């Protein structure tokens, strides 16, 4: 009775159904798709629905793009940092361009991260600790910051705890954290909360992309932020941006087809302590972010396994979508 045909990206599905004669909107968390369908034509067999489906990102709830009004991942036009990744002397140098100073309260800020279960304490101030690779220190050189920002490095954390030493937070495993973007102390939100001083945090995001693409990454941070993607450093800025959702720079970055690993470090001395990151709307329509539904470390590795092992989602015209899957 049912017929379907997949036409084009993101995912366009024609479904022939008897009994539907109105605009329908349904979400399919089980299949991680969010579809909007409308009647295309009627014929003797029934009604043809045309459905446009996008990946459903639970991780940036402000940007499930089929919902009206959710198009606030704009980035500044023509004012991006380009030419990355950073090399040599650029690695620890602040951007030379003037900061944008753009408040973006409605941007699709990422809220869920995979992160150390503890913070690096007594850092001596971010200006001192920011130059030290605390991942190398905490893993006895099993990992480094750039290595952790790779699929192989991330997989090693399944069996590698961090040990920063008694004076700096001791030993910790890894966990899923969820932050509140507009909380001006969200660096410590999952580590006791409140306004803490003199510590460093790390957070990891896996981005599953359907193809190689240029994306625009925007951050808000207090204080020193450093971001690596796929083993390369793409952002270094030791100056706070001036507000929990206030962006200094939009940065062009490259994502590969399949699973991309992003490592976001932030260092704090005193006062506000926050870290936030969002991507542009176009990227958000194409990619999926992890952690998504996972609440635990093990759950996270279950959901990222496919992306990390290079099994990217198939091109849209080959996606094995069936009507029975969509209905779930
Ligand atoms: Ca603080
Ligand atoms: Ca601060």
Report on this model:
The chain is mainly beta. It folds into two domains: 3-62 and 315-327, no CATH class; 80-308, Jelly Rolls (Sandwich). The protein has helices at residues 126-129, 134-138, 145-148, 151-156, 281-286, 297-308, 323-327, and strands spanning 3-6, 12-17, 24-28, 33-43, 46-55, 80-81, 102-103, 112-116, 120-121, 162-163, 171-172, 174-178, 199-209, 213-222, 224-229, 232-237, 246-247, 250-255, 258-268, 274-279, 288-290. A hairpin with a 5-residue loop joins strand 1 and strand 2 (12-17). The two termini are 18 Å apart. The model is unreliable at 1-30, 63-71 and 312-328 (pLDDT under 50). Bound molecules: calcium ion (2 copies). One calcium ion (CA) is lined by residues 185, 195-197, 268, 270-271, 273.
């Amino acid at each position: 009775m049912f017929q379907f045909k997949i036409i084009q990206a993101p995912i366009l599905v024609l479904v022939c159904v008897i009994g539907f004669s109105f605009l329908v909107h349904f979400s399919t968390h089980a299949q991680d798709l969010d579809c909007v369908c409308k009647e295309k034509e009627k014929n003797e067999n029934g009604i043809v629905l045309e459905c446009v489906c996008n990946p459903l990102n639970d991780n940036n709830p402000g940007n499930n793009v089929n919902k009206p009004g959710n198009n606030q991942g704009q980035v500044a036009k023509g004012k991006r940092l380009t030419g990355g990744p950073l090399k040599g002397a650029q690695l620890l140098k602040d951007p030379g361009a003037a900061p944008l100073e753009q408040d973006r309260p409605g941007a699709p800020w990422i809220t869920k991260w995979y992160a150390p279960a503890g913070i690096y304490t007594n850092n001596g101030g971010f200006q001192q600790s920011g130059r030290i690779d605390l991942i190398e220190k905490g893993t006895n050189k099993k990992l480094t910051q750039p290595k952790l920002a790779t699929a192989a490095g991330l997989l090693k954390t399944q069996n590698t705890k961090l040990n920063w030493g008694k004076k700096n937070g001791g030993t910790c495993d890894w966990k899923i954290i969820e932050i509140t973007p507009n909380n001006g102390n969200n660096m410590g939100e999952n580590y006791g909360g409140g306004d803490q001083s003199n510590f460093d945090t790390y957070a990891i995001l896996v981005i599953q992309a359907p193809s190689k693409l240029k994306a625009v990454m925007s951050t808000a941070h207090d204080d020193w932020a450093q971001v690596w993607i796929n083993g390369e450093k793409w952002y270094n800025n030791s100056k706070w941006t001036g507000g929990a959702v206030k962006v200094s720079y939009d940065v062009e970055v490259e994502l590969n087809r399949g699973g991309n690993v992003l490592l976001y470090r932030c260092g704090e001395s005193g006062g506000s302590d926050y870290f936030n990151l969002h991507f542009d709307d176009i990227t958000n329509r194409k990619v999926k972010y992890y952690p998504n539904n996972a609440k635990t470390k093990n759950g996270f590795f279950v959901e990222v396994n496919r992306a990390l092992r290079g099994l990217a989602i198939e091109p849209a015209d080959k996606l094995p979508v069936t009507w029975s899957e969509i209905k779930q």
